[in-house]
Structure formats: structure tokens, C-alpha cells
């Protein structure tokens, strides 16, 4: 299988090797549909992540002549999988669910509705939950794990005494009280933790801090409370709702397979052209048309553009005319999630059911037993904080990653465990993501979300980072891509300036 330049892989025998095999690689990287003479298109879609792929599919299947321009050599953006020795490693976005309606539509449309795998399976020898806080360690059953996580997460989010059941009823709705949202958006997760600290035991605090850091990939003073509350509501206002929906099921075939199906569908229309390995540097809107320029100086023209680059990448593209002050301010504030995600395969089947939290952790803060590999090793998914944080680890420091992982194990087990493989993608040093999944800092969502969603002349924006609904998740990407395509398809050309901005 051909390899993308993204990601890396380490084993004791090969050492560290850059690049990973994936079915998401697009070769050849350039293709012109027969109708694309003269590089004039109806729509240029920038980015081939879920938002871009869905937008391109919806536009081409509705008769539009579309060019996709993507900086990477592969499909999928912040979701893709690599198959190594018969096992699918999801390098970015992984868990999806039928309670995520937009991505589930894609899953069922392309016949993958029976293709589920479950993470966290019971029955291996080390079937328990370890919490480490400094030199202290606790061991719990998974039932106890659910109880403590559910209890602290609910306490944290219960800012109105009624679990937001009335004050934030509709997770996908845009009609919440702006005053309440603005009020919650003034508070950081650190401040909220301090508000409830007296009600938490040391164990509760360790679990809650690790849980929040695993969600937001930043120190708690950089994470906005509003983002956490939104995810609580998305988790159906239930203590374990978020975990059950968003950390549980994944596609057996891997996300790159679903990307290929969407991409192939768009190609089958005969109206899809594309450029991979083509980073967009400039977007110039000239009223009737818009020109997109790539790093090698190539220019392409279209009536409309759908820009799907992540929030943290937006300011690296030069817009003419410049983006509104609000968009610029939001792009400069960015999203704060710079976590590391690391796959660790442990020799033998013993740890498939094991889970761990570590607070503050020595580079990694959680481990989740996933499944057995074809070689009967325990595949673990682990997350760590921002590598530049005091408790972070740089991914190219393999010894550091190994000891960070081992530090989460019960002390008496550390000597016996053998790490057979490490696989990861450095999303933070990646110029096309500059971070992982979106977690917004304090004061951002209530202030800039509408502005981020609004078109800029002929340019529409679609991204999981500022979608409604599952903002920060795969589902949000699909939703926003679908909405951008729909706007283009339903709006007469002469009334583009009347495109309504979506609201929070
Ligand atoms: C480590 C990790 C774990 C995650 N886990 C989950 C999970 O379990 N479940 C879940 O639902 N979500 C998860 N997410 C979040 C989810 O993957 C993202 O929210 C979603 O995939 C974003 O899709 P998108 O299309 O909005 O953006 P992206 O996928 O980032 O797509 C944007 C595209 O634009 C391209 N691009 C950027 N700049 C340029 C440029 N200048 N020129 C041309 N192209 C450019 C990028 O290469 C990319 O392909 C995770 C993300 C990460 C990184």
C-alpha cells in the first residue's frame, strides 16, 4: 500500500519511520474533469477533510463543476487511518455514533451501517481502571470508573442546578439565550473547577482534571466552560452520555474507506477535478468571480469558494479583500486543543480491557484499551496534553512517550509490560491543522461563532471548528459541509450578498 508523508511509526526493530501507508492517498495528485477546460469552475472547495468532501460530493451530484484543492497528499484532513500489519490505526478523528446524525447518514448511505467496532471490551486479564495522581494510585472496576467520571462531569456541568435540561435544551438548536451563553462563556474550566473544588475529593479532582484535559487538550485556564457545557448537552444531559456516544464505536473499515466512497461518488459525476499537494496561499474575490492561488503560483477561478481549512490555519491564507475584523480576531484567538494522540501496542492480550487516567501525568494523561491486533497484542489509544505544557511530551521523543505510557500503569506492572509499536501523527506541528479537534477558549463561541459561519463575499466557510451541533467533531464537519453546499445550490447568483449568517 502506498504511503502518505503524514504520521510516523516506531517499533523496536525498525526504529522511528516517517510516513504511513493509507488507502486515503490520492494518486495521481492532479485530475481535470472533462468539463474543467480553462480552470474555470462553478465552485472551488479548499480542503478534502469531511467538510470539504461532503460539500464537493453534494455540489457535483447537483450539477456543479467543482475543483477540490488540498494541501496534503491524501483524503480526510484530521481523520484518516493507516493499515499496518492488518490493523487499522485511526490517526485523528475516530469514534462516531448513530446519535451523530450527519456522519451516520454518510455511514448508511455508503453501506457501512453494519461495519462497527467497539472500543473498550471486557475480559482481558488487566480488566480495571487505574488513576494516578502524583505518587498515589487507585484501582477501580469499570463500573466504578463510570460512576466517578459521571459524577464529577455532571457536577462540573451543572451550572444551573438542573443539568441545563431547560436552559440549554436543544443541543443542535441555535436559539439559546445569548445572555446565558455569554455569561457561561466568561468562565474558564479552571474557574469552574475552583467553584466546585470544596465538593471534590482528591480522587474526584484527579479524574475530573484528566477528563477535561483529555477533552480540551490544553491547561484548564485556556479552556472555555461554554465548550464543555455544549458537549454535556450533546451527551443528552446524562453523566455518561458524552462517553457513550463519542468514545465508543468506530468503523471497522476505517475513516479513509468512507472518505474514498464519498470521493468516488463525487468523481463518478464527471464534474470533479482536484489538486492534492496544493496548498492555497491567496483567495482574491473580484465580485463576479474569485481566484484561488496555490503555493506553486497556479491560479484557479470560480463563482464561489468553500473554504474548509481549520480555524488555526485560517490566518495563513491571504484574503483580498481582507477578512472581517471578527473573523480575524477569532482566527488569531484560534482553538486551544494541542493534545497528542498516540497508539501504543502492548505485547500480548492482557491490557485490551484496561483504562487509565493520570493527573497531571508525565506526558500522557489517559489510556483506553481498544482491541487486539491480528498479532494478539493489546491496542491502546492514549492522549497527552499540549507537548509544550509542563506535563507534555514531544512525540519524536520515543523514550519519553514510552515512559509517559508506562507511568500510567500500576507501579508493580511497569517492569513486565513490553511496548511493541507506537503510531502517531504530530497534528500540532502540521501546517494544515496546527492542533487537533477544536476546543474553543473562553469568550470565543458566544462572540465569534456567527461571524465565523458567515460568508465573505463569494467565499463560504465550513468546518467542524465552527459548526453548530457536534462542534469540534466529525459530525460537525459533515453538517457544515452539507450546509455550505446547500447554500450555494439554493441561492440565486445575484443575491449572494444576502446569504444569511447562521447563529449560535
Ligand atoms: C487526534 C484527533 C482525534 C479526534 N477524535 C475524534 C473522535 O474520536 N470523534 C470525532 O467525532 N472527532 C474527532 N476529532 C475531530 C475531527 O477529526 C475533526 O473535527 C474533523 O475531522 C474536522 O473536519 P474538517 O473537514 O472540518 O477539517 P479538516 O479535517 O481539518 O479538513 C480541512 C482540510 O483542509 C486542508 N487544508 C488546510 N489548509 C490548507 C491550505 N492552505 N490549502 C489547501 N488545503 C488546506 C487540510 O489539509 C484538511 O485536509 C479528532 C481530531 C483529532 C485531530
From TrEMBL:
Reaction(s) catalysed by this chain's protein: a secondary aliphatic amine + O2 + H2O = a primary amine + an aldehyde + H2O2
Cofactor(s) needed by this chain: FAD
Residue span(s) of domain Amine oxidase: 51-489
Annotated keywords: FAD, Flavoprotein, Oxidoreductase
Gene3D superfamilies: 3.90.660.10, FAD/NAD(P)-binding domain
EC number: 1.4.3.-
Protein family: Belongs to the flavin monoamine oxidase family.
Protein's name according to its UniProt entry: Amine oxidase
The organism of origin for this protein: Sporothrix eucalyptigena
Amino acid at each position: 500500500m502506498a504511503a502518505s508523508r503524514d504520521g510516523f511509526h516506531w517499533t523496536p526493530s525498525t526504529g522511528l519511520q516517517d510516513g504511513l501507508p493509507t488507502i486515503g492517498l490520492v494518486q495521481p495528485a492532479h485530475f481535470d474533469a472533462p468539463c474543467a477546460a480553462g480552470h474555470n469552475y462553478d465552485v472551488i472547495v479548499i480542503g478534502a477533510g469531511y467538510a470539504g468532501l461532503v460539500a464537493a460530493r453534494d455540489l457535483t451530484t447537483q450539477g456543479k463543476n467543482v475543483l477540490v484543492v488540498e494541501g496534503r497528499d491524501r483524503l480526510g484532513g484530521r481523520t484518516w487511518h493507516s493499515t499496518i500489519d492488518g490493523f487499522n490505526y485511526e490517526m485523528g478523528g475516530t469514534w462516531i455514533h448513530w446519535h451523530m446524525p450527519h456522519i451516520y447518514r454518510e455511514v448508511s448511505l455508503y453501506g457501512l451501517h453494519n461495519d462497527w467496532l467497539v472500543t473498550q471490551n471486557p475480559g482481558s486479564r488487566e480488566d480495571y481502571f487505574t488513576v494516578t495522581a502524583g505518587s498515589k494510585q487507585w484501582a477501580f472496576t469499570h463500573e466504578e470508573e463510570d460512576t466517578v467520571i459521571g459524577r464529577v462531569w455532571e457536577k462540573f456541568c451543572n451550572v444551573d442546578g438542573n443539568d441545563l435540561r431547560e436552559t440549554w435544551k436543544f443541543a443542535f438548536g441555535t436559539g439559546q439565550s445569548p445572555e446565558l451563553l455569554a455569561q457561561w462563556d466568561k468562565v474558564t474550566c479552571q474557574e469552574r473547577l475552583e467553584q466546585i473544588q470544596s465538593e471534590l475529593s482528591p480522587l474526584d479532582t484527579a479524574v475530573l482534571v484528566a477528563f477535561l484535559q483529555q477533552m480540551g487538550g490544553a491547561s484548564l485556564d485556556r479552556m472555555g466552560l461554554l465548550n464543555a457545557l455544549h458537549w454535556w448537552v450533546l451527551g443528552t444531559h446524562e453523566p455518561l452520555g458524552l462517553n457513550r456516544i463519542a468514545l465508543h464505536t468506530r468503523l471497522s473499515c476505517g475513516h479513509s474507506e468512507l472518505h474514498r466512497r464519498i470521493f468516488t461518488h463525487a468523481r463518478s459525476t464527471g464534474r470533479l477535478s482536484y489538486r492534492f499537494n496544493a496548498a492555497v496561499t491567496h483567495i482574491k474575490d473580484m465580485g463576479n468571480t474569485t481566484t484561488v492561488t496555490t503555493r506553486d503560483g497556479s491560479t484557479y477561478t470560480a463563482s464561489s469558494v468553500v473554504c474548509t481549512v481549520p480555524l488555526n490555519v485560517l490566518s495563513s491564507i491571504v484574503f483580498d479583500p481582507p477578512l472581517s475584523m471578527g473573523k480575524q480576531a477569532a482566527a488569531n484567538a484560534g482553538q486551544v486543543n494541542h493534545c497528542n494522540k498516540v497508539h501504543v501496542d502492548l505485547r500480548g492480550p492482557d491490557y485490551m480491557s484496561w483504562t487509565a487516567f493520570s493527573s497531571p501525568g508525565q506526558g500522557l494523561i489517559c489510556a483506553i484499551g481498544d482491541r487486539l491486533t491480528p498479532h494478539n497484542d493489546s491496542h491502546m489509544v492514549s492522549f497527552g496534553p499540549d507537548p509544550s505544557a509542563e506535563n507534555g511530551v514531544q512525540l519524536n521523543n520515543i523514550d519519553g512517550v514510552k515512559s509517559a505510557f508506562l507511568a500510567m500503569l500500576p507501579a508493580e506492572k511497569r517492569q513486565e509490560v513490553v511496548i511493541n509499536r507506537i503510531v502517531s501523527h504530530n497534528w500540532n506541528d502540521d501546517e494544515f491543522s496546527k492542533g487537533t479537534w477544536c476546543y474553543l477558549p473562553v469568550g470565543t463561541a458566544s462572540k465569534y461563532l456567527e461571524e465565523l459561519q458567515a460568508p465573505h463575499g463569494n467565499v463560504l466557510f465550513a468546518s467542524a471548528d465552527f459548526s453548530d451541533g457536534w462542534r469540534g467533531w466529525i459530525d460537525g464537519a459533515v453538517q457544515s459541509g452539507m450546509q455550505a453546499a446547500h447554500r450555494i445550490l439554493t441561492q440565486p447568483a445575484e443575491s449572494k450578498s444576502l446569504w444569511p449568517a447562521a447563529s449560535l
